[in-house]
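User: Please predict structures.

Assistant: First:
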Amino acid sequence: MGIYGAVFVRREGAGHRGHVAYCFQRWPGSACFGSTEGFMGMPWSPPQLNITWKRTATEAQVMNQLLGQGYDEYKILRGRGDEGAAFRMVDEWSQKGYALVFENCMDATYHILTAFGCSMPPPSTNWMPNNWFDALASKSIWLKANQNIFPVGPRGAEEGLLEDKQEAPPAPVDGPAPELVMPKP
């Protein structure tokens, strides 16, 4: 059973306000991930039109799929590893509609990861996904193809993965890395 959860952000989602997805470790190397989105960008969708998705895959497959969907960064959160409670919450969210307020990507991520046992501020403290992500007390990590998401073993704290620090973006193939410009909460 895993002990880590993660929040992923796609900074350009929702008109540059951001979009988030959840991920929780099932066991080392395997994770469940997903999100919820409004139908065709609508601010409200009934349950039958709600776009809630979840998948279980290897951590490298999760990383590659989220990169392909335009996600930029993620933050790791330590949890209790209550996989059963997290899956029950995933099922509950798949039956809900979508609403711009209180039934959106942040709310689903928050409820699923807190059911898993992660501690984080509720989305009502930061109404925009980018701001809510930035306020999470953990290091921001840039997505890279084929990499594992979570530290192997209980090394997260020792490696600084759970601290509030930011890492420079990966360098482009044809030149040096651009200067990191990210707002602090």
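Second:
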Amino acid sequence: AISRRAPEALQAELFDARLTCARDLIAQGEDADAWRIFRQLEDEAVTNRQRAAVYAQRLLIAGDEAMAMAMRLAQSPQADIRAAGLRYIRQIASTEALRAAVADLHTLAAPVQVAVIEAIAQRGETALREPVRRAADSDDTAIGHAAIAALGRVGTEAEVPLLIERLERENDREVALGALQRLLPAEAVNDAIVEHLPDAPIATQRRLLGVLVARNATDSPPRLLRHMAAIMERGDAADGELIGHLADALTELGLIEHVPAMLEVLMAAEDEGRRRRIERAIIRTAMRATQPRDAVPMVIAAMTQAQPPARAVMIRLLANLAGPAALEAVIAELDHEQPDIRRAAVRALAHWPDPAALPTLDRLLEDDAHARDHGLLLRGRIRLIGADEHRPLPERVAMLEQAMAATQGPAERRQALSIFGRLHSDEALSAVEPWLDDEQVRDEAAAAALAICRAIAADHREQAMHVLRSIGDVSENQRLRNEAAALLERLEQEGG
């Protein structure tokens, strides 16, 4: 026996040694001997930690009494003892025993109900969902919230209507959102959420769409698109906000195989705002794909059936996707009978993302029929010359000089000069130097020349020094003059 007169530390060591001995007896199948030791230790325990350790082991060999014992422990005011009972409920108790034990869950004190519900939630068994559903109706907020949260772990798609109803209650909203985001099985729950969308208020629909996005419900876009089509067919202007929310969800959830259905909805949209929201969803969907240009033939096929407003949007889509097939399709639209479509094609080519459009831009710039778009086309040409890094540098300089000669205002010249500053050659410096005398673009010319001088001064020292002196003479920008003077001084010192 443990001597009450022994030092406290020794008493604790002896207690733990006997507890270990009892555990070993359980492992050897000697439950009766272990039980006797546990009863003695229970009488001799000094601290709640010791008592909890004894109870945790007794639960393992308590047989049919274990569940009732665990429920009693879960109601203890002592945290260590309470934890022992809840651990058994959470990790060890059989489903059948626990389901029977919690049939009268509502009779327990509120803190105990919350703790037991949380333990059930961690088990994640749908077989225990009924007592949790009943607890969700409790008038006690803590119990109700614990139950709603638990349904996210033990519930099924059958809980979706209840959770949506709670989503509409401000006090329950956050916990219901969390439960909906966790609820399984994924596809069945996603279907149930989409099924209940049309009957929900707009604010609730917006939240449910956010839930689908949080769940990464990439199986839901076909049904979301049907919902969107039905709304647009209704023709109610007040539905614009909801269509926007649906488009935002599709932006996050769409897959490349959903693009044809998105294009159908695009063609049904009756105002430009809605078309642009759907356009954004299609672009984001395509760009997330491993091969974004797989969407190009889908867009081209849809264009054959599209009316001018939707057709113009599809031209923009092709410009975003780019590639040879997209470029060919947009060039073909330059001959469309509708002026708005031709203009959309011109704008798409002017904003084309790669230099493949340069030959077509050159042709359009030479065509008087496109004089009204001269500035737009020229800016596009200048941008693509800057992006055409595979073209030989002298050829890019010559093309940019030609573009500068065709400019009609300072905006295009500033754009061209900014690109000249990245073309580090003596030819580029020679092309920029005359623009130091143009008051409208003098600073931009000086900045470009200074950048080129820094890069080529080692091989073209005299030319660089000449241009740096010119910057100092004509620029009214103090910073540029100072930088030019510092570089010039360094070059002069290096030259001796």
